[in-house]
Specification:
heterodimer, A: mainly beta, globular, B: mainly beta, 6-stranded mixed β-sheet
């Protein structure tokens, strides 16, 4: 069966520090991969999505970046964190088929930038 | 761009009461999905609606997709404490890759 791993679960970082969040998917090949951010008590904002290795689409211009070095690995990074980067970060994957793909989410990373 | 609006933002009910959340899109959708996020958890897929006017049921949950494929609703009959959480709708335009989420409706229940 397919599983998605996301780590760390919680992270406290000072302003200006770098960030690296990692997500891996097991049990499937060629998944679509996504990074979402959820501010406290709010909806899901799509940050990046990827349909293949090295293929990244950015939805929101900001100081975050994403990379997909391997088929089932998705990394979210920042060189210098801002206070506004605090939030709940969720990685998700979907089977690449038609338009009717459902998302499977990881357990999320709660990031606090202080 | 495509927008998906969801109301209400919050809903508090007594256990046993019914609950409904509504979702409206600014554009015609190819399909709509519903997710549930328990407090402290991650969103979990509930269901997908594809056809105009489609109605699907999962036990006490009833999902509807509008005739024009621009709105949807989730109705829970006789809520239970296990229904607590935030319910999100998410829609995708015809031929689009991106799934756009509504802001969610947070349901709390008084036992």
């Amino acid at each position: 069966s397919q599983t998605i791993h996301q780590w760390p679960a919680t992270l406290v970082q000072p302003v200006g520090s770098p960030l690296s969040l990692e997500c891996t998917v097991e049990g499937t090949s060629n998944p679509n991969l996504y990074w979402y951010r959820q501010a406290a008590g709010r909806g899901l904002q799509l940050l990046f999505y990827s349909v293949g290795i090295g293929q990244i689409s950015s939805e929101v211009p900001q100081n975050l970046s994403a990379s997909r070095p391997q088929d089932r690995q998705f990394i979210l990074s920042s060189k210098k964190l801002l206070l506004s980067d605090s939030g709940f970060y969720l990685c998700a994957w979907s089977v690449r088929q038609t338009r009717n793909e459902k998302l499977f989410f990881g357990s999320g990373t709660q990031l606090s930038v202080l | 761009g495509q927008q998906v609006m969801q109301i209400p933002q919050y809903q508090h009910v007594q256990e046993g009461e019914d609950f409904t959340t509504y979702c409206n899109s600014s554009t015609t959708l190819s399909n709509i999905q519903w997710y549930k996020q328990r407090p402290g958890g991650h969103p979990v897929f509930l269901i997908q609606l594809v056809k105009s006017g489609e109605v699907k049921k999962q036990k006490r949950l009833t999902f509807q997709f509008g005739e024009a494929k621009k709105n949807s609703s989730l109705h829970i009959t006789a809520t239970q404490t296990t229904d607590v959480g935030t319910y999100f709708c998410a829609g995708r335009n015809q031929g689009a890759q991106k799934l756009v989420f509504g802001q969610g409706t947070r349901l709390t229940i008084n036992p």
